[in-house]
Specification:
The protein is α+β, with helices and mostly antiparallel strands and about 425 residues long. It is built from 13 helices and 18 strands. The chain folds into 2 domains: about 300 residues, Aminopeptidase (3-Layer(aba) Sandwich), CATH 3.40.630.10; about 120 residues, Alpha-Beta Plaits (2-Layer Sandwich), CATH 3.30.70. It starts with 5 loop residues before the first helix and ends in a 6-residue tail after the last strand.
């Protein structure tokens, strides 16, 4: 509908542009409230107020230990549940249209060293068309685009036929417990869209990851006679080097049209290493937390077996490790890779909406990071895509930012998508 109605499209573009200051101000308000994973309560109050002011019915739901414990493998261990509401805004349609669930997570990673930021991590500063601050890109900006789109439709008096549910969720950065909780609470749509920072590309496929803890035992002695002991750290080095080899082999061997040519297609990352307790003592133990990327089409169990076999093979080459084999623990938060076909209706609708706004079809890409897309698909039964402003290359980094023009482009695209996907109940006054 929207691609053939130039007048309506122009009105949407004009209205979103007119509300630029309000959209920027909302994102600044969100960025200025810290919302580290596990501490999202305060920012969710800002979200609830924005939803209410935009005419959405506001509901809340929280994860519970009993509710999420059966899903430990998918979202990891959870210890904090209090004051972590998921805030859901609902715009009920007049009936007869398709429904959609829009999702953005409100939790962020640590700010890092404030001295490395040009502008403070909670500043919300605007300079050269960019808005700076932790979460501006990943992904409070995405939430702002949803609100801006719905405000524009409200300003134009456009009534949709299908229901729109906007879920502002918690806990995405450590497994997705918030998205899971909203799904378990029964929130659904005929499709879902997550506003991850995709640089305005349509993403119908997300990679996944498996995470494990490796434990190596050594033998402690005084450093002055270190050759009498066994350094657990030194025993880790050949295993680390073989994991690097495994990464290169997988990068060369695996092929997927949306991931081929990607620099880090299936990265293996040693994220945490704990070893030793004193410079004068040979370390008697080592623990390393390691992430292995997985592409759509791969089975988690098969990849786990491959990793275990590679580590066992390296260990068997070492007399000490043969007698004291490394231990491997798959400790939760395993992220399944998922994809939807490009001819899925939600993919086609997003592509049309983006082209109507920009005049060109969006890039179509896969992403090598995990996202809540997998949860909405596996446990919510919804086809799901990623689309949003921002570059994930700035996520989690100092000087995280989002380009305001891209923020507005995403807002216009979402508004056009809602019109086509949900349907319009009746033409608003002044628009044929």
């Amino acid at each position: 509908m929207i691609e053939s109605d130039a007048t309506l499209r122009e009105e949407i573009v004009r209205t979103v542009e007119a509300q630029r200051e309000a959209t920027v101000r909302l994102l600044q308000d969100l960025v200025r409230v810290p919302s580290l994973t596990g501490e999202e309560g305060a920012v969710q109050e800002v979200v609830a107020e924005a939803f209410g002011e935009s005419g959405l019915a506001v509901e809340r739901c929280e994860a519970t230990p009993e509710g999420v414990s059966p899903y430990y493998e998918h979202v990891g261990a959870q210890t904090e549940f209090a004051n972590r509401p998921n805030v859901v805004g609902i715009r009920t349609g007049s009936g007869g249209g398709r429904s959609i669930l829009l999702n953005a997570h409100m939790d962020t990673v640590e700010n890092g060293d404030p001295g490395l930021w040009t502008h403070g991590p909670l500043s919300g500063a605007v300079e050269d068309g960019r808005l700076y601050g932790r979460g501006s890109c990943d992904m409070k900006g995405g939430l702002a685009t949803f609100v801006a789109a719905l405000r524009a439709l409200g300003e134009l008096g456009i009534e949709l036929r299908g229901d729109v549910t906007v879920a502002a969720t918690v806990g995405e950065e450590d497994g997705g417990v918030g998205a899971l909780a909203t799904i378990l609470e029964g929130y659904r749509g005929d499709a879902a869209l997550i506003s991850e920072p995709t640089r305005l590309a349509l993403v119908p496929a997300q990679a996944g990851s498996i995470v494990f803890r490796l434990r190596i035992t050594g033998s402690a002695v005084h450093a002055a006679v270190r050759h009498r002991g066994v350094s657990a750290f030194e025993k880790f080095i050949p295993i680390f080097e073989d994991l690097r080899s495994l990464e290169r082999e997988r990068e060369a061997a695996l092929s997927h049209p949306l991931f081929d040519g990607m620099e880090d297609k299936v990265p293996i990352n040693v994220g945490i290493v704990r070893s030793g307790n004193w410079a004068v003592t040979v370390p008697e133990s080592l623990e390393a937390d390691i992430r292995v990327g997985i592409l759509p089409g791969e089975e988690v169990g098969t990849l786990q077996s491959l990793v275990e076999e590679r580590i066992k093979t390296v260990a068997n080459l070492d007399p000490w490790l043969r007698e004291h084999p490394p231990e491997i623990e798959w400790f939760g938060g395993q992220t399944v890779a998922v994809e939807v076909p490009l001819d899925t209706p939600i993919c086609e609708a997003v592509m049309r909406a983006h082209e109507c706004v920009t005049g060109a079809a969006p890039a179509v890409e896969g992403v090598s990071y995990g996202a809540d897309m997998r949860l909405f698909m596996h446990f919510g039964g919804m086809p799901c895509v990623l689309y949003g402003a921002g570059d994930v290359g700035w996520a989690h980094s100092a000087d995280e930012h989002i380009v305001i023009e891209d923020l507005l482009t995403a807002s216009k695209t979402i508004a056009c998508l809602l019109i086509e996907w949900c349907g319009v109940a009746e033409s608003p006054p002044g628009i044929p």
